[in-house]
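re: ur question from yesterday

yeah so i grabbed the chain u mentioned. its 346 aa long if i counted rite. heres the sequnce exactly as i have it in my notes:
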Amino acid sequence: MSETVKVGIYGAGWVSGEHLRAYLGNPHCEVVAVGSRRLSSAQRLCQEHGVEADCCDDFERFLATPGLTAVSITGPNHVHAEQTIAAARAGKHVLIEKPVAVDRASLYAMRDAVRAAGVRSVASFVLRWNPLFSTIRALLAREAIGTLVYAEVDYWHEIGPWWTGYEWARTKASGGSAFLTGGCHAVDALRYFVQDEVVEVAAYAATAAPTEFEYPPTVVAVVKFAGGAVGKVSVSFEAWLPYQFNIDLLGTAGAIRDNRVFSRELLPGATDFATVPTTLPNSGEVTHHPFQGEIDHFIDCIRTGVESHVNLEDAVKTHEVCLAIDRAVAEGGPIRLPAENRRVVG
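ran it thru and got these structure tokens back, copy pasting raw so excuse formatting
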């Protein structure tokens, strides 16, 4: 595909500006449509970035924009699935903000719609383009820490009324859960580093403090992988601290702790961790997130016809883990994967 990819963005909230900025930074695409539940929000977004695009407040009209090829779906969590289904049925390639869905039925319905349409898809697990993630993946590919036996990732991000999305994100209907709203980044990172699938989870939620969230805002889960490794993943929206995205990977020949490496293979004479100077995933501010890499990847997938490593099929697996964690909290026992999430008995 050599022609310019004509793209649209539906949803004019916090993250949409970064999608728009990244599209403007890609020479192979043109932003032709911006939509939102409120027309004024779409118009404001275009004005802020000096973009001349068709603005609307109706998703069907948005999809009917002449020449529209691909869309970013950046509205509230609960509309991602229905809008993805409509976009796929209209033949549009889709970049879907996380979480892609807040319930299992919607998750599988959107996956089936994208499968049937044969369009390219990317789930916005944007940290896969963070330089630390690239460094860690390169170290793991070289077996720098030997066989991975334990993996741990934490997503600790205080969320309150300061955030424009707080009022809908704190509800179960739209936010879903702490793991769906934000902790899914940690689950995706865990899968991305271990390169294996979770087969069982056990989880607990903190209940020590009162909360305005309609779901537990602090949850920790222990996970078992098919290949025998184990791990831990946690999320907290209520802890008062600067944003933290902790990564710990332990292997038979070394360890990685964020950007610190201890490796018998690469650094045989080391007596302590070596620090790698790189950009850390240490901010919840969306301007810090590597959207240019994600958008460039999405456009490349469309132009070449290649499936993304973080397409909807892959994202379903991350969301299945999140949903299993939520069920383990609710039912008070370990849950097996994949899809059917069988309760472990005995």
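noticed a couple things. The longest strand covers residues 148-156. also The two ends are 55 Å apart (CA to CA).
anyway ttyl
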